[in-house]
Design goal:
Low-confidence stretches: none
Bound molecules: zinc ion
Radius of gyration: 23 Å
Structural class: alpha+beta
Helix content: 25-40%
Length: 331
């Protein structure tokens, strides 16, 4: 299958951080494939690559993803949406259809944020990067929303003191209070369907092995699929100086088209939120009706890791569902 061969070609370029020569090389490779497919190729001001079926005038429907990677990346994150997206666009050949490669997605979606043109609809095929489809025995999944998040920190103050001479009943140990918060965060997220919360950094002062901790600062990353659930989670966690990004719901029209295509393939129709950010979330926030189709991730759902894997069979199904959906949207 040509999709798998092209994924190999991209993987051979190695890691590709956004706006580096390595990402440029991937864009050049893709631009060559776009021209071979007879697409009109454009590079916009942010460096995004767009390949259009010639002869516009109809509804502009885009598919695509990104070709930059994290350090130590796998072979499917972003690349699959570009390579399979091109395949689908080429198969359909409908004017108004285009495949896009957004720049620098991994470090904050610079390309899709800076994109000067906006399509009438956007559909992104992407690997799930998690274990939900694998556990449900479903090759494909339809994304309901890109989760929103609240990030910030929590500070706990105690009284530093001698670790040997201060009795347990008079201590004010900041790290014990912080540890209780970590457990509270876990329970709060578990109590809200689709929510997650993570403490990823801990700083302990004064940081001596024989000193009772006097101050602890924790990082908090809390995510939920809609504004109501994110409100509840944020209320439970009381993050200091929170930075909040709203959830991006996917378009009901595109979700319905994706569901119909998945069902037509005789597959279970499973809908799920995306816990990771994607270009589709940026476009949806900018008012572009957007949708996402997830392909099952194998190896336990691992991603941002060379062990990232999706099967050729699942990818073939995803390509069919994507082409069908693009066909419906551009008809
Ligand atoms: Zn990605």
């Amino acid at each position: 299958m040509r999709v798998m061969e092209r994924l190999d070609e991209l993987a051979a370029l190695g890691d590709r951080i956004g706006y580096t020569p390595a990402e440029d090389a991937a864009h050049e490779l893709a631009a060559g494939w776009f021209r071979e497919a007879g697409l009109e190729v454009e590079v916009d001001g942010a460096g995004n690559l767009i390949g259009r079926i010639p002869g516009g005038g109809r509804r502009e429907v885009w598919t695509g993803s990104h070709l930059d990677t994290v350090p130590g990346a796998g072979r499917f994150d972003g690349t699959l949406g570009v390579v399979a997206g091109l395949e689908a666009v080429e198969q359909l050949g409908t004017p108004g259809l285009a495949v896009v490669v957004f720049r620098d997605e991994e470090r904050g979606c610079a390309g899709s944020r800076g994109c000067s043109a906006r399509p009438d609809a956007y559909v992104e095929l992407h690997i799930e990067q998690g274990p939900i489809l694998l556990r449900a025995d479903a090759p494909l999944g339809v994304v309901t929303a890109i989760v929103g998040y609240v990030r910030g920190r929590r500070t706990f103050d105690g009284t530093p003191g001698h670790a040997g001479t201060t009795p347990m009943d008079v201590r004010e140990d900041a790290l014990v209070a912080a540890a209780e918060f970590v457990l509270h965060a876990r329970e709060a997220a578990r109590g809200i369907e689709g929510a997650v919360a993570t403490v990823g950094q801990v700083s302990v002062e004064p940081g001596g092995t024989n000193v009772i901790p006097g101050r602890v600062v924790l990082s908090v990353d809390a995510r939920a699929p809609d504004a109501d659930r994110l409100d509840r989670l944020a209320h439970a966690l009381q993050v200091e100086e929170p930075v909040r990004t709203e959830p991006s719901p996917m378009s009901p029209e595109i979700r319905a088209a994706l569901r119909a295509e998945v069902e037509a393939l005789g597959l279970p129709v499973l809908e799920l939120p995306s816990g990771a950010g994607h270009d589709a979330g940026i476009l949806a926030s900018a008012g572009v009706p957007s949708g996402m189709l997830f392909v099952r991730s194998l190896n336990g759902g691992v991603s941002h890791n060379p062990a990232e894997l999706s099967s050729e069979e699942d990818i073939a199904l995803a390509l069919e569902a994507l082409a069908g959906t693009l066909g419906r949207l551009s008809a």
